[in-house]
Amino acid sequence: MTEITPRFDRREALALTFSAAALAAAPGAASAAVKAVAATPAKRFSGLLAQFAEELLKLAPATATSLGLDSGPRLALKSQWGDGSPAGDAKWAGQVKSMLARLGTVNRATLSPADQIRYDTVKHAATMGVAGTKWKFGGAASGWGGGTAPYPVTQQDGAVTAVPEFLNSQHQIKNRADAEAYVARVAGFARLLDQETAKILDQGSLAIAPPSFIVSNALGQLKGYRQTPVGEQKIVNSIVERTGKAGIVGNWGPRVSKLVEAMVYPALERQIAALSLTSAHGSDVAGVHRLPDGEAYYQWALRLGTTTTQTAAEIHAIGLEQNKAIQSRMDAILKAQGMTQGSVGERVLALTRDPAQVYPDTDAGREALIGYCNEQVAKIRKLMPQLTHLDMKAPLVIKRVPVDIQAGASLGYMNFASLDGSRPAIYYINLKSTSLWPKYQLTTLTAHEGLPGHTWQGAYLAEKHAEIPLISSLMGFNAFIEGWALYSEQLCDESGLYKDDPFGQIGYLQAQQFRACRLVVDTGIHAMKWTREQAIRFLVENTGRGENAMTSEIDRYSVSPGQACGYKMGHNELLRQRDRAKAALGDRFALAGFNDAVVRTGGVPLTVLATAIDQYIAGAKG
């Protein structure tokens, strides 16, 4: 249930391009090119990857901020957003095509084994980006970033859902220049809204709009944000509080308030009007098969989400089979706890509704829930030495999803730590109602979002960034990221975390089963024309999770086709590669060594993972 930081960066990366021609015009570029000719293949390739990274950071200034790279020579990026206009989109498409063409000049055979993996990884990302230029929705940036967002504004996509929390939690304010950059970005917030509005109207002219139930939710969020008094907006209070603590004197509050009142709110009103107007084109059909060339689009989205070439029918069948197998394990544990009546789903639903499993739906209850999650992080940290030999601190903060976006946000997601160490990883948990997260589910959620899941994998990119090219932090392979997090949940079970906690183990197995069910419902709604209600019913009946939570999940899959399939497909491939390594190495196999080999890739498509494990096996054999 995770969305990594690029949930916003993918969108704004559609915006601004930094072409090869512009780079070549930079001072010193000619002399650098001459030096590159005389360099070794390794140095030339390293230089090319570094060039790609700088281009991409200029495409997506928010990414530079997220990674803590918006200082020094990149300081100008701190006050910018991307250009989401049609011209900006076209330049981004040209960028991925340029990257693919430049990769074509590299002789892969001359590269080291590690660089061959990097070559294949970047080529896959650029290829998917180019393929995404075919449609008026999705797009090149989605292909590069590893996730699809067919519509510019939904309950989970768009500037309103992203900008305020981004500015509050990721835009650092240490001095006056940082505060001025914040003010500039508030002004730019209005431009982002208008660029999204233009896309809404453009799609509307082609009878493309989100499903009606998505529009209803999104409009509620937009109107709620507009109706909030300026003085109560986080975007205003954040800069006032932080400049006050830092002793940065200035009329920051009045300046930002004026921008919100005079620029942001009018742009938001225009967006509300546009979304209301084009909602006439919407329907209650959840799947993207209803869109122009929608079936082909879903095939692309499914490949993007899973980094495999398996078909929707194949993935659907895998989900059904694995759901049954996991339910069998759950059945045995439930019976051992005296829960014998009804289906597995019915018994787990009864556990979900057990008052003893639900924290009070109050601020104090929410604090206690987050406190429990922090306790689980501490327990898992004690297990880490047997799971990894990487020496990392992996700092982590657990926060509730901001109230102003919780109605449409995912139930849980992660923002990776910045590369410069200025910001830890942030694990967000949606606490619109504490009933969304009964206690027995929290440990495995924490393993997924925290340790040894997303936080650990992201910590390698941050704490060991000197060992890997910067571009590894600018690519997002959904199946790898989510597959690792799901595999991490299993590592905790295998390490005995649930030895004395049978209901916690039910929570772990339910999470695994839930991901198997995602394979069924994502392919169901997008390829097999399931209704929203049919998909919700399948999840509730099979997983035992509440209807409100499962409605939120299906709505998420409706606007992120293919993404939900990456979790279990990635997990399956990691287990397949682990079994292969065990068979090849026998007594030489070491769990920590395998795990570290996976994390050290920095994140790769599943089609490339086997090459990395081949190298691990060869190294372990000596």
Write the layout of secondary structure elements.
Layout: H1 6-12, H2 20-24, H3 29-38, H4 41-59, H5 61-66, H6 86-103, H7 113-131, H8 140-145, H9 159-169, H10 176-205, H11 212-227, H12 234-246, H13 252-278, H14 294-306, H15 312-336, H16 344-353, H17 363-387, E1 396-400, E2 412-415, E3 425-429, H18 442-449, H19 454-463, H20 478-494, H21 502-527, H22 532-543, H23 547-559, H24 566-585, H25 591-599, H26 606-621
Parallel strand pairs: 1-3
Antiparallel strand pairs: 2-3
Helix pairs in contact: 4-6, 6-7, 7-26, 9-10, 9-12, 10-13, 11-13, 12-13, 15-16, 15-21, 16-22, 17-18, 18-20, 18-21, 20-21, 20-24, 21-22, 22-23, 24-26, 25-26
For the largest beta sheet, what order do the strands appear in spatially?
Answer: 1-3-2
Helix/strand structural class: mainly alpha
- Between the first and last Cα atoms, what is the distance in angstroms? 39 Å
Can you count the beta strands?
A: 3
**Average pLDDT for all residues:** 91
Low-confidence stretches: 1-34
Number of helices: 26
In N-to-C order, the SSE pattern is: HHHHHHHHHHHHHHHHHEEEHHHHHHHHH
Q: Portion of residues in helices?
A: 55-70%
- Rough outline: globular
Largest sheet: 3 strands, mixed
Strand content: under 5%
Rounded Rg? 24 Å
Structure description:
The chain has 622 residues and is mostly helical. The protein contains 26 helices and three strands. A three-stranded mixed sheet has the order 1-3-2, with helices on one face. The radius of gyration is 24 Å and the shape is globular. The two termini are 39 Å apart.
